[in-house]
Amino acid sequence: MNLVVQSPSPIADAHLKPLAALARSTQTARADDTLVRFIGADPLQRPDIDAYCGTHALDYAFVAPGAGLADFGLVAMDMDSTLITIECIDEIADFCGLKAEVAAITEASMRGEIKDFNESLTRRVALLKGLDANALERVYEERLHLSPGAETMLAGARAAGLKTLLVSGGFTFFTEKLKARLGLDFTRANTLEIVDGKLTGKVIGEIVNAEVKARTLRETCATIGIDPQRAIAMGDGSNDLKMMAEAGLSVAFRAKPVVREAASVAFNFVGLDGLLRLF
């Protein structure tokens, strides 16, 4: 395999020999000062590579020689804390003075400590009952920011012929705005019930949990005529694990430990455009 090591800042030459030795690689290639490719690396050395890169704030991935982004047909992304930097529900809750309470439930759910996502979401949404729906617009306009490298990654994926899917345990209010803004092909999320301009504290229809995320990835692959092994799935929380397991390549982005351990690749330091640089 090739071992690709990248960083948001220049990688010091002092790292090259230790990494080459750990990877059992005899040839290196520098793409630029923030990326090094170690040729003929031994993937069984992953634990040692992981420990070294974690200590030195480097991201790494084992990539098959000759693999290209165009080998894939779909990139599926989680929204909250993956494509965007915030958890929308936590920010909505801030408008009714309950951010800390809601964020604690969100964090426990994403870490996998609350096993029932439906219950977790239902509990959090119930706390929003009575909130003026214009809070959603304020969250979008004032607080929602794309994750570093998001637009570059999406442009590169499109250029390589991939379709894009945003599948979220969050809300359609935000996924639909992002779909229009970013030119995404497919979206799936939860719909908040709004009556007389206020949130009712309920979600309409099927909740997008881990199983629904995985099913949505499979269905989208079927729609565009590819095997799920030709999908890339990116996420950060435990409710992304089943979707990521369906895909041929899974990327943990600024993810919880349980997700980093399960993913093909973890980006703890570089932006989402690190995906393009793997190839």
UniProtKB/TrEMBL annotation:
Record pathway: Amino-acid biosynthesis; L-serine biosynthesis; L-serine from 3-phospho-D-glycerate: step 3/3
GO cellular component: cytoplasm
GO function terms (MF aspect): L-phosphoserine phosphatase activity; magnesium ion binding
InterPro entries in the cross-refs: DUF4072, HAD-like_SerB, HAD-like_sf, HAD_sf, PSP
Residues of the active site: 78 (nucleophile), 80 (proton donor)
Cofactor(s) this protein requires: Mg(2+)
UniProt entry keywords in alphabetical sequence: Amino-acid biosynthesis, Hydrolase, Magnesium, Metal-binding, Serine biosynthesis
EC number: 3.1.3.3
Domain DUF4072: 3-49
Known catalytic reactions: O-phospho-D-serine + H2O = D-serine + phosphate; O-phospho-L-serine + H2O = L-serine + phosphate
Pfam families given in the database record: DUF4072, HAD
Superkingdom of origin organism: Bacteria
Class of this enzyme: hydrolase
GO terms classed as biological process: L-serine biosynthetic process
Family indicated by similarity: Belongs to the HAD-like hydrolase superfamily. SerB family.
Name of the featured protein: Phosphoserine phosphatase
UniProt source species: Caballeronia humi
